[in-house]
Amino acid sequence: MVPRTPWHDEALVVFGEVARDAARHFIQWWNIHKVFSFSNRLFILPKTYDDKEELTVHNWKEFLEDHPCQINGQCVRSIGPWSASTKTTETSILNAYIQMIDGAEHFIFIENEFFVTVANDSFIQNPVSETLYQRIVRAHRLGEKFRIYIVLPLLPGSDNVNIVQASLYFIMRSIAKGDNSLFKRLEIAGIQPNDYISFFGLRQYDILMGRLVTETIFVHSKLMIVDDQMAICGSANINDRSLLGERDSELCVVINDIEEEQCLFNGRSVRVGKFFSSWRRRLFSMILGTMRHNENDIDVSDPVSDQFYNYFREVAHKNTLIYEEIFGVLPTNCVRRFDQMYNYTDKPKLKDTDPNQAHEKLKNTQGLVVDYPVYFLDEESYLPSLRTREGISY
């Protein structure tokens, strides 16, 4: 057996017309691949529905703990001639991301396995970074209180060194490495990036066979929640493979909440979706460690205020410093060049020099959140050689 890193994912259960559309997408995909692969498996025929009553699900209590919420949903896809034999390439997932980011009024929360989106780049074509940049610039110009939280895996999920290098290289180029990165473009525009946008990872610790150990939590979600009013969730990563429609086939659901409730954002009363607000609060509570024990009475309902945004960042940074001192974790902002790597990793680690003190310090960590190391190896170029498959593919 090969041990697997801890895993974090988010998903949806949907009923009604949007579920029917998801089924029809699968049928279309299944049938065209049967043709291409000359498989003996049977074709699937979609069921015909005469009215909406047939779509009603009465046995939801068998697989849901709580009563389902009412929402408006729409399936969106990345799909094209090669993957589904369509006449045109469909990029409705990308269109949804762009429209939702541009229309966000208060905050954006993203969990994704990738963040590969570079403006003005000859390789990376999707405009997610440009849209985030323009939304932040607009917030800065108008004096708006606007926040973006992005949670990513601390390392790409692969045991292939070339894949890890290539993925990490382009993620860092997207965030802070080079003049076309999101952070650098904001700084050139006179904007402090962390006033509006922050990147985070997830990490945990435990005692294994009498020794303190730590492990990153691999974020596999493909989720964006906007203003606690709408969301997109599905299979699409934030990269060209998932968003341009000409490569991987993807399916997501865009959801608007119907049931609303009152909430305060930065001291202002706003209407938020009942479903999305509860979903986002649950995620923040898990990330900050307040789901079961909330000794400091932290209110996660307002993601916009300076108080909460700074608290979120402070918890992440405090946790990061503790993990670096005790375990010498990688990746880290302490290592910006290869020649700094060994100096950092060779330093005595508190888990070895004083395990009892290390364990006491680890009790001061809160939740799972840590800083995303946006400046890790930012003075180095580690893109795999173009002679490798991974170097060519990017």
Automatic annotation (TrEMBL):
<dbReference type="InterPro" id="IPR025202">
    <property type="entry name" value="PLD-like_dom"/>
</dbReference>
<dbReference type="InterPro" id="IPR015679">
    <property type="entry name" value="PLipase_D_fam"/>
</dbReference>
<dbReference type="Pfam" id="PF13091">
    <property type="entry name" value="PLDc_2"/>
</dbReference>
<keyword id="KW-0443">Lipid metabolism</keyword>
<dbReference type="GO" id="GO:0060627">
    <property type="term" value="P:regulation of vesicle-mediated transport"/>
</dbReference>
<feature type="domain" description="PLD phosphodiesterase">
    <location>
        <begin position="215"/>
        <end position="242"/>
    </location>
</feature>
<protein>
    <recommendedName>
        <fullName>phospholipase D</fullName>
        <ecNumber>3.1.4.4</ecNumber>
    </recommendedName>
</protein>
<dbReference type="GO" id="GO:0009395">
    <property type="term" value="P:phospholipid catabolic process"/>
</dbReference>
<dbReference type="GO" id="GO:0004630">
    <property type="term" value="F:phospholipase D activity"/>
</dbReference>
<keyword id="KW-0378">Hydrolase</keyword>
<dbReference type="InterPro" id="IPR001736">
    <property type="entry name" value="PLipase_D/transphosphatidylase"/>
</dbReference>
<keyword id="KW-0677">Repeat</keyword>
<keyword id="KW-0442">Lipid degradation</keyword>
